[in-house]
Amino acid sequence: MKKKIVVVGATGLVGRKTIEMIKEYKLDKNDISLFASKNSVGKVFEINNKNIIVQELNENNLFKEKYDYALFCTPENISKLYIKKLVTLGTVVIDFSSMYRKEYPIIIPEINLDKANESIICNPNCSTSISLMALCNIHKLFGLKSVEYVTYQSLSGAGHKALLDQKEINQKDLRKLDYVIDNNLIPYIGEIDRQGISKEENKMIYETKKILDDVNIKVSATCIRVNVDICHSISINFTTRKNVTLLDIENALKNSLNVKYVGNDFSKLQPRYVKNKKDVYVGRLRKTELAKNSFSIFVVGDNLRKGASQNGVQILDELIKRSK
Ligand SMILES: NC(=O)c1ccc[n+]([C@@H]2O[C@H](COP(=O)([O-])OP(=O)(O)OC[C@H]3O[C@@H](n4cnc5c(N)ncnc54)[C@H](OP(=O)(O)O)[C@@H]3O)[C@@H](O)[C@H]2O)c1
Description:
Blueprint: E1 4-8, H1 13-24, E2 31-36, E3 44-47, E4 50-53, E5 55-56, H2 59-62, E6 69-72, H3 76-88, E7 92-95, H4 109-112, E8 120-122, H5 126-142, E9 144-153, H6 160-167, E10 185-186, H7 199-212, E11 218-226, E12 232-240, H8 246-254, E13 259-263, H9 271-274, E14 280-287, E15 294-301, H10 305-322
Parallel strand pairs: 1-2, 1-6, 2-5, 6-7, 7-8, 9-11, 13-14
Antiparallel strand pairs: 3-4, 9-12, 10-11, 12-15, 14-15
Bound molecules: NADP nicotinamide-adenine-dinucleotide phosphate.
NADP nicotinamide-adenine-dinucleotide phosphate binds next to helix 1, helix 6 and helix 10.
């Protein structure tokens, strides 16, 4: 039976990629509706040979129909306004924002799909999602003791306005980033708290423990915005609880689902190569002298695919399969 699916924030970077993923995962035969702000009303997307017109997001329009599933590709404040009410109407919601990540399960299908049993399901932070694809099998086999992230995050991670800013660098009024990114990088992402930790870094710390279901892992993160359109890259140092060799780690990475271990083939560890790839790419594996059982890896993933829309649509696909 056809499901009724609504994509809210359909015109943004995550929304557009979500429509693409709905097609790729062959879910486009369902009954799809699209919403965005009033500025986007009338935009048209072709889905399953039908032209679907974007509607204005407001209570009257959104709540007039009953949806089986909703994908919220919107900022936190919009998620907050609409999601709980939709849930009371019987809709299962997948939210890409960080609004409900403390209260509800955060799901990466390759890791913790068994926890996707609530009416609100959160998609993780993009850098966390990409990093944990590489770390989850290592944690399962050897137990992670500590993880230290340094991220190199693309402009698309900050939404379509940030991408636009780079293309139209002289239009200062359009710039969403706090600083000029041209020939530059920005050494923090999100507000800084009293301890000097940024919002993005706090997300990575909290979500790593929650998704791996282990509060004892010590996590630190430094998140950097770089002048790259798409793909987040993450340098990760980690230590394991069990005694392991470099080969043990290499084998764990080679046996990780939807991860391509590329060793020192540096050409495949670059955003330009990984952009629009389904898998997460991992290499530059080496031991460090910082501690016993301490290793470094470099991870690159498409933030709009595994970092967002692909992960969310994988969840949707599983929920629909379960309901049959
Ligand atoms: N970008 C990433 O890599 C990434 C990864 C993981 C999670 N996320 C999260 O996913 C969400 C969407 O991110 P994005 O990068 O796609 O942002 P974006 O490109 O800025 O798109 C935002 C979407 O929300 C809609 N929207 C904004 N304000 C609205 C309002 N007042 N009423 C109705 N619709 C409104 C926009 O509609 P209009 O086009 O009409 O303005 C647009 O469709 C955010 O919560 C973000 O944190 C993003």
